[in-house]
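Sequence only, no structure available. Ideas?
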Amino acid sequence: MKLKWSVDINNIMVKDFLLEMGLSRKLGRLIKLYGFIYVNGIEVYNYYKLVKGDELIVVYFEEGSDYPAVNKKLDIVFEDDYLLIVNKPINLTSMPSNKYLNDNLLSYVKFDLNKKSAGTNPHLVNRLDMATSGLVIITKQGYIHYELQKSELRRFYLAKLENLPLEISGIINLPIGRDETSKIKRKIDFNGKEAITKYKIINKLEKIVDVEIITGRTHQIRVHFSNMDCSIVGDNLYGSSTEKELLYLSCYRLEFIHPITKEKLEINKYPNWYKG
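Reply:
I predicted one. Tokens follow.
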């Protein structure tokens, strides 16, 4: 589904404009989770402020048919009748977009589920940045996704830093907002959204930290450590001086209650660069 408007209202957030145009709050939430919003050709989020004259395009991938199924091998870590957990490689987007319509994790998953006749409407529960590797949960039916969202999902990452924090462990509680100088960067912004990151140094020699995100803001871990002059190795977007093709950041553990069996699951997958 693709919708297009020429904006005739000043200083209104996208989400409020969509309501003005008659879209339901439920559809607005689905677009936020599974769609894309473009203003004047640039991808934005639903809280972006529109001005008169803006061209707003909303793309929403409806059940089953609006994006391709692509045959690529998945690194499957866990699977049952309801859930699929895969290890996403680096430099792969989680969702389809105009630029990555075929080369994205969801298209690979769709092909895999079609092949198994296990559902054609996969839903991502957690997303990872294109450069970040690690565990991603996919539900095979929409109602499973809804049930899973009711429970707590704990997400743990490993990161290799250029410099270590002064404290061996800590909690970073600094809000994050968009960086106006870039289309994709974020920054510490005291008018931004709450962002909380817990960390613990687990290998001083290799400068590796174990990280749990309490909130899930875009680039949260990368922004928080860059702000402490502890950029992640390979993160040239946020100040890393090390030229690497690999961003040393990976989601290695997920903990949650299974929405159907009510079993507590702890899924682990360590990145190749981590030697334990």
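Residues 63-150 form a domain with the Pseudouridine synthase fold (CATH 3.30.2350.10).
Hope that gets you unstuck.
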